[in-house]
Amino acid sequence: MAGRPREFDRDQALQQAMLAFWRRGYEGTSMSDLVAALGIASARIYAAFGSKEELFREAVALYAAGDGGFADQALSQEDDVVAAIQRMLADAVALYTRDDLPHGCMVVSAATNCSEQNDGVLEWLRAQRQARTQSVIDRLRRGVSDGQLGPDTDVDALGDFYAAQLHGISVQARDGVPRERLLASVSVAMTPLRIAAGKA
Fold first, then answer.
1. Which stretches are labeled DNA-binding (predicted)?
2. Span 137-159, average pLDDT
3. Three-state DSSP class for residue 53
């Protein structure tokens, strides 16, 4: 008599899939990799999640709702715009260099280049990154409205700059740049915003 099939915990499987995609990216994670990471047969993965792409999208949503939600928290919870941007960058360094997680940002590193058949994934991740840039611009614009930044502040340019810092921290963390150096770079990067806020 055959043994009973292993009990399937969908939430746990999704967590393992997230870590696999975070570590190797979308195309770098094969179905056999997912079978090994989740500990269940590919047929059960398809039955539970539909497709590799649907599983990936759910994994990104899990990332954004958990560890990856640090930027939204920093931008919404800090009343001072300088503190909000500094916390966002410092929290990025803290997450992207954790020893118990893959280094870097899942959304930044999961797919910057894909084969043509995965253009949909590429475009979807690009939209995720563009939305992050817009959220930074919106927070800076609120800083102008609140009188924390000068009325002539170029919020688009500053927003692009801090989004580039955020994404650059991810790349450097993946390359093994130490946490202390990344935090030092955050301190330097805050200078333009401090000037705009009259705090330099």
1. 30-49
2. 97
3. helix
Give yes or no for residue 1 having a pLDDT over 50: no
State the burial class of residue 130 (Cβ atoms within 10 Å of its Cβ: 0-12, 13-18, 19+).
exposed
**CB of 105 within 8 A of CB of 171?**
no
pLDDT in tens, 38-62: 998 999 999 999 999 999 999 999 9
The maximal CA–CA distance of the chain, rounded, in angstroms, is 76
Return the pLDDT at 12: 93
> Structural domains in the chain?
10-63 (1.10.10.60), 67-196 (1.10.357.10)
Lowest mean pLDDT among 4-13, 152-161, 176-185, 188-197: 4-13
Q: Name the nearest CA neighbour of 155 among 169, 139, 166.
A: 139
Q: Is the pTM of this model over 0.85?
A: yes
Angle between helices 31-38 and 52-65 (to 10 degrees): 50
Three-state secondary structure readout of 125-174? HHHHHHHHHHHHHHHHHHHHHCCCCCCCCCHHHHHHHHHHHHHHHHHHHH
